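Morning run. Coffee first, then this:
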Amino acid sequence: MSVEFRQRKPTELIGMVKRQKWLIILPTLTLTLAIGYVVYRLPAIYESTSLLTVKPPQISSNLVQAVSSSDLSQRLSTINQEVLSRTSLEPMVLKYDLYKYERSSGMPMELVVDKMYRNIRIELEETGNERVAAFRIHYRDRDPQAARNVCADLASKYVIAQVQNSVQIAESTNQLFEKQLDEKKTALDDLEKQRLDVMMANVATLPESEQGLVAQLQGLRQRDDTISKEKETLSNEKGRLNDTIAANNRQMHLIEDYGEKETQDSARQASQIEDTPAYGELMKKRADLNSQLDNLLKVYKEKHPAVVAKQSEIARVNEEFENLKKASERRVQVATQSSGRKAELQKKSLELENQKLQAQIAQVQQQIATKDTERQQTSLQIATLEARINTIPGVKVALEGINARYQSAKETYDEILKKKNDAETVVGVETNAQGETIRVQDAANLPQSPVAPKRSLLTLLGSALGFGLGLFAAAFFEVPRLLTIQNIDDAKHYTGLPVLASVPPLLTEGEKKSARRSRKLKLAAAAGVAIGIIPIIILVLELTHFLEKWVS
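And here it is:
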C-alpha cells in the first residue's frame, strides 16, 4: 500500500530555512566578498569610437556608382581582412605600447594581437539616408589615451585602404577588359576561318542537288517496300509449310495411337478362345467324361481298366485344350504383326512427305535470306542518301550559325571596348581621389569614464551564485529529512492513526548546554572554512583571469 507524500506547510518550509540559515548565509557572504574583491581590483576599461562615412563621387554617376548601406557590409568585410590583419595590428601594439602586462609576462605576440582584435568592433551606422553609408569603429583599452590613439589610427587605415582598393579594383578591371578584348579578337578570327573551312569542306552537298537526291531516295524506299512485301509472302509460305509438317506429325501420333489400339483389339479377340464353339464342345465333353469317371470311381478302384480308360479320354480332351490355346497365341501374334506393319507403312509415308516439306522450307528460308541481304543493301543506300540530304541543311545552318556568332562576337567586342574606355576613365578618377572615398566624420574621442567592468552587477551576480550554492547545500541536508517521520503531523499522515500524546526530547540541563556548545562549535568551524576559502577563490580568479576575460 502506497501513501502520498505529505505536502509541507509554509511555516515548516520557513523552519527548514531557519535551521539551515548559516548554510545559505555563509556561501553567499563568501562568494560576494571574494568576487567583489576581485572585481574591484580589475582595471577600468575605456572605449573610444569614431564615425566614418562614405563620401559620394565628385563626378557623374554614369561613370562611378555610389555605395549604399546594403552593400557597405560586403565592402567592409574586404577592407577588414587588410586593416585587422596581424601585419596591420602588430605594429600598433609596439607603437602605442599596448598590453604591457601581457607582453612582460611572456605572452606570445600572436595571442596579444588576438586579444587586441577582440577589443575592436565595427558596426554599420543607421543614417536614415539611403544615399549616405556610414560605419563606426569601437576600440577598448585600459588606457583612455591608448584607446583614442588606436581608434584614430584604425580610422586612418580604413580611409587609406579604401582608396588603395578602389584604385586596385579599377586597374584590375581595366586589365580584365584588355584580356577579354584579346580573347574576343582571337574568337572573331577563328569564326572567320571556320566559315571558310565549312564552305570548302561541303562543296559536294550544295542545296541545288537536294531535289535529285530526294527523288533517288523515294525510288529506294519503294524498292525497300517491295522487298518487304515479298519477304512477308515467303514468311507466310514458310509458316504454311510448318503448319503442314505439324499436321503430319499430329497424324503420325494418331496413327501410332490407333495402330496400338487396333493391335490390342485384334490380340484380345484372337486370344478369347472361350467364345469359340470348339472350346464349348470340349468343355461339355470334359464335363461328361468327368461325370462318368466319378460314377466309375464309385463302383471300381482307380486301377480298374474302365477307370484308366476314362482317365485317358479326359487327358486327351485336356491336350486338345492346350492345342486350342497354342493356336490362339499364334493367331494373336499374326494379328499383332499385321496391325503394326500397316501403321508403320502409314507413318513412313507421312515422314517422306515431311522431308519434302522441309526441303521446300529450306528453299524458302534461302529466298528470305536473299531478300534480307537485298533489304540491308537498300537500307544502307537509303541511309547514305539521307545522310547526304541531311547534310545540306546542316551546311546552311552551320554557315548561318557562324555568321550569327560572328555578329554576336563583334557586338560583344564593341561593348567590351566601350567598357575598357570607361575603366580607363575610372582609373584616372580613383587616382585623383575624385571617386568614392571614406572620410572621418567624427574623430576618435578621448573617453572620460570607463565602460567596464560593471562592478556592482558582477558583485551582485556573485551574491546570487553564493545564494544558489547555499540553497543547494541546505537542500542536501533537508531533503533526506523529508523522507522520514519528524513530527506529529508526519505520524498521523503516514500511519493513518490518531496520535494520543507526544513526548518531547527529555534532555538534562547539561545535555542542553552540550548541544548548544556543539552547534556553536560547528558554526565557528563553518565560518572559519568560509573565511579561509575566500583567499583561495580570489587566487583562482586572479590566476585564471576569468572575470578579466569576461568583462574585457
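The longest helix spans residues 305-431. Good start to the day.
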